[in-house]
Every structure is written in structure tokens, then in C-alpha cells.
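Chain A, query sequence.
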Amino acid sequence: KTSSDAGINAALQHTLGDCRFIVSCPKILCKTWWREIRKFFPNLTPVILPGKTVVEKADQVDLYDVPGVVYILNKEAFRPAKGSTTNLLLQAFSSLKRTSEGVIFTAASIDESSEMRNHTQHNVGLYELATLSLRRRILSGNPAPQSLADYVNQFNFLHKGILEHNTQNAMVTAGTVKKS
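Chain A, predicted structure.
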């Protein structure tokens, strides 16, 4: 999954030029993403933002803004700080220059997207990330969902509203998805 996704990003960078990418993955996979990109894709610049807190990471965003940058962030980074409803990291990215399409990232990828099953603050941050990206990809090694409801949040990341309101209501009624 990692090499395939990075390969697509490398091809986009080669074809389009000045691109920015972002990957959200479990913390344990951040270094794997960084190593794979460095090893196989020299036209990309992987960056794991330093800092333990979202505020520290947000302060570093502009420092690494170069063509072909791939921001690699653990999924926890997209949760708002305690006592806040605002995701500071997404605010920091929104300060970066937008493309002619009005987005910041050429592509956003979520690794282990099967973890997006429930409507949580973390997922809300990921949905906001989707609005900053021209292309969105979900990556999952989970071969079989337990129900159709497991796909709702993943599809909403890929294309907000692709599952009509009535479809979601039917799934809530059937008890396969929690009302959000």
C-alpha cells in the first residue's frame, strides 16, 4: 500500500510539478512511510512534522513547504486540542498557498482507513482534510468489513455526500450505523 500510494504521488509530482501531499497513518507507520518514500521516490520529500503537540507541529508546516513535499502525520494529529473544537494543525495547513483549484494538497491519503468506522472527532478532522485536497485515497489491508456501515466514513472522506442522506438514514434505522 505504502509504495503504491507513494508511486502515484511521485507520478503526479513528475507530471504536474509543484505538488504537495499529505498522508495520515497510525503513529507506528510514520517512519515506514518516510523510509519507503526516501528509498524509492527521489522526487518526493517526506516530512514527519516534529513536535509532540499539535501546536508544535503546526508551527513547523511552513518550514517544509517545498515542491513534492509529503507531510506524514499520525492520525492523532487531527484531533482538536483538549477543550477546543478547532484543529490547529488544519488551520496551519490552511495558511499555505492554495492551488488554482482552490486546494492545498494535490492528494491526501489515509492509511488503515478501516479505523474510520465510527463518527469521532478524529474523523471530523479527516473530513476537513478532504476539503483541502484535490484527490483523496483510502488505503486498507482489512479485507472484509463487518457491515456496509463500515464503509460510510471512508466514502464520505473520498466524496462528501456520495451516500445520500436517505441511504444513511436507512442504515441508521437498520442499526448498522450510529446516528451522527
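The longest strand covers residues 105-111. Strands lie at 20-25, 45-48, 69-74, 105-111, 133-139.
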